[in-house]
Amino acid sequence: MLLIELYTCRAMETIGILDKASSEGWTDQQVVERVKAGDTALYEIIMRRYNQRLYRVARAILRDDTEAEDVMQDAYVRAYQHLDQFEGRAPFSAWLTRITVNEALARLRSRNRNQQLDDAEDTGELRMNLVETSPDPEQNASSTELGHLLEEALLALPEKYRAVVMLRDVEELNTSETAAALDLSEENVKIRLHRGHEMARGWLFSRVGTNAKTAFPFMGVRCDRVVRLVFERLAGLQSKHSQIQ
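^ thats the sequence. predicted structure below, dont judge the formating
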């Protein structure tokens, strides 16, 4: 009975801290410092703050929902394990996004070791990898929705352009933020964005307009699932660490 009361008390205290952090608009740095000091529950703020961005960039690289979620979990766990290495020279969001990109690229190479991302600029004709779609009537109907069309257009881009277009056009990061997140030069970001637009712009982007921010949603149950699974993995790591000590 005492254990249940203690657990309930701690849970209420955690909820109170989360509400306070939300109402006071704590910065990433403030949250990270509290997490490093032992308030692990506050890591939820970071996850809910960046779940959609990390999902979008992982999805852009892998083109697979399930793998994107797996990469998100791996990235959050790796970031948590290396919080002491975050020096604050770049925004925490860029550092976290870069970890996600690295995890996604590693998974992509593992999936197909013969397929390498070529950092050299294309010299031939620009081409899009068109994604095959089923002639199912329901899918055909949904493809008329602008958000769905945008998703198809972005996922059809070659790998090295997808993440840039996703971060610049959908997440609305500026050039320097995108460069930091993807470990590219600002000039390279501009070139890839321009060429990505050449392949996917025109009537599609002119019609999507402000609906870009509604594409690739990651919220509700899916958001809750990632938060829960990351905490389960962190608890497992802490348990193993305690046993070793």
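Residues 220-244 form the longest helix (25 residues).
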